[in-house]
């Protein structure tokens, strides 16, 4: 739990380089209702093996990694056949070290009919950050996609009005990306200088 | 056109047409001036500084006469970058940030964050029962204080001043309890990963029971003021209509969804913190309008009181049980105690780490400065906040700080329904509709 990994550096200073670990694909049986969801989707969607890049069951949650070209098709089937009536938004995650799939969009889905939750995840390269918009499937994702565009620069193709939502319209950059500095200035207190939070020494 | 040059209230020509500034008191002159123009379509900016937009919310209205043809919300005025900041703080410090998001329901933010963190740590089942009961107690008290603001300010915005006084009086009682338990009235960072910050003070449940009795009586004041009141009915019945299909496609949860008759409440359907062991009802109405949502909030108060009483009973039964997870590598080492100069670190703990045990000092230092590590992965944990589903999506890279944290804020999501609720209605009805969504801009913008 405490301890150091790799460098043997016991000062606690590890710089600010952080690499998120990826959780691999899961094998059947997935447990809980996840097998049913996967079976139902395979039955309702013949292209399942082509569209779903991976199925991950971790900490009692099911994640389906979907190819972006198939996102709309899969979404419609999940909504209409599997009764995932609600999409609880979209959350972006930036993994700069995963080359070719730096930007992830995560969609938590909720089925009121079956009282189930699953998650869709779509990953795209930074150089071509386009994902089809699911607003035509779940209209409530409108603002969520605007926020993810605002914060990560992921462009949701087909969105009715993809503009910034939280940051000012003329803002430069996308603040939640890992290469976007937190900002802040060193603060002097009684002669000592305290660096900005992202410049401070920190534990890895 | 008249030619007055008041700098605070004037008109100017732009590429988009004539723009008039209104600051109040000059209405007659302005109406004369607007009357002279040929344009029938008027775009009005309501807010972000407007007393009845429920916070710094900007509404862009397109009017035809007094009928609203289009509504668009402008948000972001309260954006504080909490989600970014938290990536530079350890997991325990994160609580201090999330509590400031939706400032009217801080304990729900903390709960969602802590439940997600505990899921990542894999200690969900190790949380002591007493800690869960205290969380439930605090959340339900918070639901009351939050609904009180929703009802009070909602009524105030529609012109009823007395209910606001009554509602804030009751809210004060709840905040007094918060102060007694955590030392703070708002943003208390009381719920921590692994349990709660500290145990209840002596006599707390007794005080809460007395307050519950008083509140139960006092809630009737507001109920008799508003339920069935003919002016109130005219301002709320049939206003802000949004049916079940609209709610599901827009992802709306909470009282707005329950006003369509669907008893969807995460406390019942996907229980957390042991809600399955409490006896309470999910309140619904089937009117899909502002009045229905108002009734739901009114009746949820009573349900919350019921849960609070049961939680008090449970807490009393579990007297002396721990309120923090047993794993010393996660549990916060220090306890707080009331000293002569107020709440601070417990003197016993200071004595131990400074005087008797070097290992305790090292442990304290490591846990407080470095924090604990959370295994890599991602989770989504949702709680039923007073405004709907509050979800925390947290990604860990295995380090001592969250790699990415995103809050699915019910206020943010539900505010999208403003257009659906208001287009085609009168300007005055927007106020009621927005108040019935009960958006808290701190949560919307984060």
Structural summary, described in words:
- The complex is a heterodimer of chains A (204) and B (446).
- In chain A, a hairpin with a 4-residue loop joins β5 (103-111) and β6 (116-124).
- Chain A has helices at 34-44, 48-51, 71-80, 141-152, and strands at residues 52-58, 61-66, 86-87, 91-94, 103-111, 116-124, 130-132, 155-157, 187-189, 192-194.
- Chain A has 204 residues and is α+β, with helices and mostly antiparallel strands.
- Chain A is 18% helix and 24% strand.
- In chain A, strands 1, 2, 3, 4, 5 and 6 form a 6-stranded mixed sheet that branches.
- Chain B is α+β, with helices and mostly antiparallel strands and 446 residues long.
- Chain B has helices spanning 27-35, 82-85, 91-98, 106-121, 129-157, 162-182, 204-226, 230-236, 244-249, 255-258, 266-269, 290-317, 347-356, 358-370, 410-414, 418-422, 427-437, 441-445, and strands spanning 11-14, 17-20, 41-46, 58-64, 67-74, 191-192, 195-196, 336-339, 342-345, 377-385, 388-396, 404-408.
- In chain B, the strands form 5 sheets. In chain B, strands 3-4-5 form a 3-stranded antiparallel sheet.
- Chain B is globular.
- The chains are: A alpha+beta (204), B alpha+beta (446).
- The interface between A and B is large, with 51 and 57 residues.
> Could you list the spans of chain A in which at least 5 consecutive residues all have pLDDT below 50?
7-17
Structural class of chain A: alpha+beta
- Identify low-pLDDT runs of chain B: none
Number of helices of chain A: 4
* Count of beta strands of chain B: 12
Report the β-strand fraction of chain A as a percent range: 15-25%
* Number of H/I helices of chain B: 18
Strand portion of chain B, in percent? Answer: 5-15%
**Elements of chain B, N to C (H/E):** EEHEEEHHHHHEEHHHHHHEEHHEEEHHHH
Sheet/helix structural class of chain B: alpha+beta
Task: Describe the main β-sheet of chain B briefly.
Answer: 3 strands, antiparallel
Which value, in Å, is the CA radius of gyration of chain B? 24 Å
- Would you tell me the overall average pLDDT of chain A? 83
Helix content of chain B: 40-55%
Large-scale geometry of chain B:
globular
Largest interface: A-B, 51 and 57 residues
Helix content of chain A: 10-25%
Largest sheet of chain A: 6 strands, mixed
Tell me the distance between the termini of chain A. Answer: 11 Å
| Gap between N and C termini of chain B | 44 Å
Mean residue pLDDT of chain B? 86
């Amino acid at each position: 739990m405490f301890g150091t990994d790799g460098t043997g550096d016991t000062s606690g200073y590890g710089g600010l380089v952080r690499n998120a670990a990826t959780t691999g694909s899961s094998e059947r049986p997935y447990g809980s209702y996840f097998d049913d969801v996967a079976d139902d989707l395979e039955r309702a969607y013949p292209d399942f093996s082509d569209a779903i890049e991976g199925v991950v069951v971790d900490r009692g949650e099911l994640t389906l990694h979907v190819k972006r070209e198939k996102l709309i098709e899969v979404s419609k089937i999940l909504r209409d056949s599997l009764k995932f009536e609600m999409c609880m938004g979209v959350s972006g995650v930036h993994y700069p070290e995963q080359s070719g799939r730096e930007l992830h969009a995560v969609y938590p889905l909720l089925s009121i009919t079956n009282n189930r939750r699953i998650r869709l995840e779509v990953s795209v390269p930074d150089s071509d950050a386009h994902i089809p918009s699911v607003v035509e499937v779940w209209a409530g994702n409108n603002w969520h996609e605007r926020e993810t565009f605002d914060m990560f620069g992921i462009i949701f193709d087909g969105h009715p009005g993809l503009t910034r939502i939280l940051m000012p319209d003329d803002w430069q950059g996308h603040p939640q990306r890992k290469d976007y500095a937190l900002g802040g200035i060193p603060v002097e207190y009684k002669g000592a200088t305290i660096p900005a939070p992202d410049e401070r020494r920190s534990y890895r | 056109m008249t030619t007055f040059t008041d700098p605070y209230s004037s008109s100017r020509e732009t590429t988009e047409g004539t723009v008039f500034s209104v600051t109040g008191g000059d209405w007659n002159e302005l109406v004369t001036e607007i009357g002279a123009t040929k344009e029938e379509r008027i775009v009005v900016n309501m807010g972000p500084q407007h007393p009845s937009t429920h916070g710094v919310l900007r509404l862009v209205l397109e009017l035809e006469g007094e009928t609203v043809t289009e509504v668009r919300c402008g948000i972001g005025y309260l954006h504080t970058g909490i989600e970014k900041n938290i990536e530079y703080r350890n997991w325990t410090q994160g609580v201090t940030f999330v509590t400031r998001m939706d400032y009217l329901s801080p304990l729900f933010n903390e709960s969602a964050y802590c439940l997600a963190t505990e899921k990542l740590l894999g200690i969900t089942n190790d949380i002591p029962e007493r800690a869960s009961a205290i969380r439930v107690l605090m959340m339900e008290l918070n639901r009351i204080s939050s609904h009180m603001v929703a009802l009070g300010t909602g009524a105030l915005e529609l012109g009823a001043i007395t209910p606001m006084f009554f509602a804030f009086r009751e809210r004060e009682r709840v905040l007094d309890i918060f102060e007694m338990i955590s030392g703070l009235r708002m943003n208390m960072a009381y719920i921590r990963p692994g349990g709660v910050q500290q145990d209840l003070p002596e006599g707390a449940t007794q005080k809460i029971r007395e307050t519950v009795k008083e509140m139960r009586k006092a809630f009737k004041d507001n109920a008799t003021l508003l339920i069935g009141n003919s002016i109130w009915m005219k301002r709320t019945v049939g206003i802000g209509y949004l049916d079940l299909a609209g709610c599901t496609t827009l992802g709306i949860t909470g009282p707005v969804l329950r006003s369509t008759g669907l008893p969807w409440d995460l406390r019942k359907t996907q229980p957390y913190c042991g809600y399955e062991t409490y006896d309470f009802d999910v309140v619904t109405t089937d009117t899909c309008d502002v009045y229905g949502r108002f009734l739901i909030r009114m009746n949820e108060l009573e349900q919350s009181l019921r849960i609070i009483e049961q939680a008090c009973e449970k807490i009393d039964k579990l007297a002396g049980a721990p309120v923090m997870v047993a794993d010393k590598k996660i549990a916060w080492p220090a306890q707080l105690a009331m000293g002569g100069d107020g709440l601070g670190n417990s003197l016993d703990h200071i004595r131990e780490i400074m005087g008797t045990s070097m290992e305790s000092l090292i442990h304290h230092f490591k846990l407080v400065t470095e924090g604990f590590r959370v295994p890599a992965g991602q989770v989504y944990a949702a709680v039923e906040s007073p405004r709907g589903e509050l979800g925390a999506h947290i990604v860990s890279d295995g380090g001592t700080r969250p790699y990415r944290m995103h809050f699915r804020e019910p206020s943010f999501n539900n505010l999208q329904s403003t257009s659906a609720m208001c287009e085609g209605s009168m300007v005055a009805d927007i106020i009621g509709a927005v108040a019935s969504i009960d958006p808290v801009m701190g949560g919307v913008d984060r």
